[in-house]
Amino acid sequence: MFADNAKIIIKSGKGGDGHVSFRREKYVPNGGPDGGDGGHGGDLIFEVDEGLNTLTDFRHKRKYAAGNGEEGGKRNCHGKNGVDMIVKVPPGTIIRDAATDKVIADMSGENTRQVVLRGGRGGLGNQNFATATMQVPKYAQPGKPGIELEVHLELKVIADVGLVGFPNVGKSTLLSRVSNARPKIANYHFTTLNPNLGVVDLEGAGGFVIADIPGLIEGASEGVGLGHAFLRHIERTKVMIHMVDAASVEGRDPIADIYAINKELESYNPELLMKPQVIAANKIDAIYDEAESAIPRLKEEFEKKGIQVYPISAVSGKGLKELLYHVQELLSLTDNAPVIYEQEFFPEMAAFREEPYTVEYKEEDHVYVVEGPKIEKMLGYTNIDSEKGFLFFQKFLREQGILEELERQGISEGDTVRMYGLEFDYYK
């Protein structure tokens, strides 16, 4: 069975604790502190593997955890960093937070590797806490904890053209005829249980990727049959080919079939009907009485709506060239940018969303001091020195209401804000 969604638990590594120790040498009986820092926890990383095309492996293993950082050692020895956990997924995989269903990452296009959960920062050894008044610090900082999260993996195939239609109308035959795909073909319903992708090469024009979306049935948008599992794969496509049985071999009305499928598409996601469509009226080689042909009715019904009808035979190849060049023309009029879902959920923020914080103005130092577990944790997860990290930290301060609280207390541009040793000037 094709697997295109799975739920797994992921966890980044805990930072190693800082170490408490003191120099003890032959001629230095009371040496200073020399406890080393703990190692950083390993990151949880998702990486695209072009050789994968299903999420089946995640049905057998559900928990993925990075390694913890090691504790610091004596003589200023830094603990070893935790081993990163790299999770391989097929291209087109969307990673969502299971609780909110918000997108964490879309492994599509150029995004082939993404750190989803950062490991906890290693704790500082006691050598970092020595001062003129405290020369024998017996305290070391514990490592920051890792983040654990349940995520929903969802695979949406990446194709330019989606081939849709009721079961047994000839989609797999068409795909095998026009592309390099070799789908399983048989004369019974639901032969295709996973999307088949093929590359179509056209002489004198650019090629495109076509996906045979498995047979839809009425009620698919409500989850009937394998509806949701199939409909999600249409979302990334730019053009849709409606394939119908123009010979009505099974007694179906092709016009009614097109309206039924469009209704399912609209119920699932109304934006799908905004994509350009074309109708492939298949099995013309099985039409023996022109008076009973559905093609004139199809043309009369849909061409006035701007949807072209192409009579074809997937078996003999008749009419395929005209159909494919029209599809290429439709593609040339669409946006070439791939459909990629933007990040909506940031695990670092969710890890400490409810923890309190304080904002206090120290008049003697003319500085606003912001403290709290959530601030300290965020500083432990974020590289403030990088532009991207600082912008991310600013977004965190805004979404947590900290910037609003600073403004409520009367902060002005140029005033100093201090957070656990980090100082910066406030500007809107």
Fold and architecture overview:
There is one protein chain. The chain is an alpha/beta fold. It contains 9 helices and 18 strands. The strands form 4 sheets. A 6-stranded mixed sheet has the order 10-11-9-12-13-14, with helices on both faces. β10 (196-202) and β11 (205-212) form a beta hairpin. The longest helix is centred in the middle third of the chain and has 15 residues, at 254-268. The protein starts with a strand and ends with a strand. Residues 183-193 and 219-227 have low confidence and may be disordered.
Give Rg in angstroms.
30 Å
Instruction: Give the number of helices.
Output: 9
The N- and C-terminal alpha carbons lie at a distance of 54 Å
| Residue-averaged pLDDT | 80
Strand arrangement within the widest β-sheet reads: 10-11-9-12-13-14
What's the gist of this structure?
With 428 residues, the protein is α/β, with parallel strands linked by helices. It is built from nine helices and 18 strands.
Question: Any key phrases for this structure?
Answer:
alpha/beta, elongated, 9 helices, 428 residues, 22% strand
Topology (elements, then pairings):
Layout: E1 5-11, E2 44-48, E3 63-65, E4 85-89, E5 93-97, E6 103-107, E7 113-117, E8 148-155, E9 161-164, H1 171-178, E10 196-202, E11 205-212, H2 227-231, E12 239-245, H3 254-268, E13 277-282, H4 295-302, E14 309-311, H5 320-332, H6 347-350, E15 358-362, E16 367-371, H7 373-381, H8 387-399, H9 402-408, E17 416-419, E18 422-425
Parallel strand pairs: 1-3, 2-4, 9-11, 9-12, 12-13, 13-14, 16-17
Antiparallel strand pairs: 1-8, 2-7, 5-6, 5-8, 10-11, 15-16, 17-18
